[in-house]
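Open question from group meeting: does this chain pack into something compact, or does most of it stay loose? Before anyone orders reagents, we agreed to write out a predicted structure and look at it together. Recording both the input and the output here so the notebook holds the full record.
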Amino acid sequence: MKRARYIPWIAAVACAGAFGIEILPPGDEGGGGGLPPPPPPPPAPATPGFLTYTPFTETSTLQVGWGARGGATNYVLDRLADGAWSRVYAGPATLVGLPLPGNGAYRFRVAACNANGCSGYRVDEEMRLSFGPDRQTGGAGSAPFASASVAGAPLPGLSVLAPDSGTHELLPILGAAYDQLRQELTANRCLDMVGAEIVNQPARIKDYLFTHVRTRDELANSLNLASNLGVSAKYGKFSGSYSGKKTLLSESNRVEETSMIVASLTDQMRVETLINHPLRPLDPVFVNMLSSGDTATFRNICGDGYVYSIAYGRQVYLTFQLRSLKYSTDEIRTQTAGLKLDLGSWASAGFDNTRKTEIHTKYDKYEVHVRVISYGSAAVVSGVVDFATGLQYLQNFENEPPGNEYPFSQLVGDYIPPAGSPFPDYRPIRQPLQRWYSFDQQIATRCEFFDENLSNPDDALAYDGNAAPLANGLSLRTACFRMKRAVQENIQNCEDTAKWGQCIPPDSPSCSVPNETDSCLSYASRFPRWNMVPASVRLLRDMGGGLFSSTEVVRGDACFAVPTMLDLRVASVDCAGIGGCPAVRKGVTVTTVRLLRASNGWNSWNPTNRCLHAEVTLNRPGGWTSGAHVNQAHTANGMQPTYPMYLF
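Structure tokens returned:
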């Protein structure tokens, strides 16, 4: 019977073969010798692991990034504004720049998608975008003025300068407003400059200075910024990217841990000075503003003072910061001091190519982060570059010909107030604002590890999970984010005249944190400061030769007595490729003195017992001349929480 069934099938195959048709045997439909069933569609990807808003700039562009997911072909990003979600991006990227319409509260959510659907949304905390006081860059008082002749002094033919690529405002000329609280220039000229007399003097000064800074205050001073007004809104998603040197300062981290070198190169060409500047009257437009009692608007437009002298030329600030996963903090600080001497000697010798190559080779084993901020130089860049590029900028600056003059520094005078029209007195605001800056810096130190923008995002999430049991269950990633929002909003209140009535110090009981019931100081006091404490286990064994082969496991433990987590920034193994070396584990450093006939080296960290376990297997072959040796240290780079008081 079975044979009879297959005879018509054979005939069918013979017939179908001529037309390229495949016929399955009887009883084999969908199986047997036929084609395998099609694979099932891939599942929808997992929800992105993190969502972060990187520091925004004064051009109102916000960088939004999220964690990639395997199997995802594209991502969708929505923004919540005025109570409604709207799609702002759909595509394969995991980092996008979004233009924002202006001040306001925003929230984002992201999902990973493929042909089978999308994951759930990753939603982060609400963030508040603020550009600070309103600056009318094209309003009254910003027109060019006519200069009167001064005997013996050539006139430059002043006009409005080109836009500064680092800010959203035009850089001002003489008579422009200066905000002494924010240390920023505005584009509005509030003095009456009709018939103003200007002296334009050649003043060629070339000054190269290399400074070794060990604290953030020293860094601010080396950049010619007042230390208490230099850092604002440093941590996390509310890190404002301020123009010029303040950007460089606010984005530098781990200064106290590693130290830094600041290279300040100045090539001044000339100086313009407003003659008899104390006698210049205010523009009538702004006198009327004061007379009508609108002092807040006056300050937001005209600042607290005016510029009466500007130096023109070119200037470059570079910061060099050595980092390494293999060397101790003391080693990094020592090498940083050596780099300062090498850079100084290289500069004094004219920045020759041979010496540049020697310096690069000498420090090649370190990771060197270089930031560059330039004024009037062709080396226009703001960001982190590699060591070779940083050295090339120094050399390019030395060899750059004159001609690209730029106003890089200024002197500031106080207005003469009109009778009966008092200026808004900013001096009482200085004390709470200084306290906020100090508070902000201390919070940034405690929260640095939990910010996806300053470290590897996966590490930041791991830190958050590891730290929560040591911080009484507090998620520091979320807590630091909320605290930073409170800091930034209060700093804005103290900087903006229109909100001075809301300017309070950080330890005020009325200072609140969004979505929390604690006051600002009470809430921030729950954040530990992390102290670095190492603990090592030594694997030491010397097996001499013997008649018979022998195997021995050498093991040991190093435990911390107090709550401890690993410093995930540190991880190194100095004997790669040898069987007795463990794989690289973040937070653990392995140092080998001697290793012979060793295998199966490994280590593990037990967060519950706070112990590092390490072991290696020695395999000695038979023979009196043979042997096996291990002399190896495994170091857990611990971080232990303490709760010191905040200092103001």
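Observations to bring back to the group:
The first strand starts at residue 51 and ends at 54.
The CA atoms of residues 486 and 513 lie 5 Å apart.
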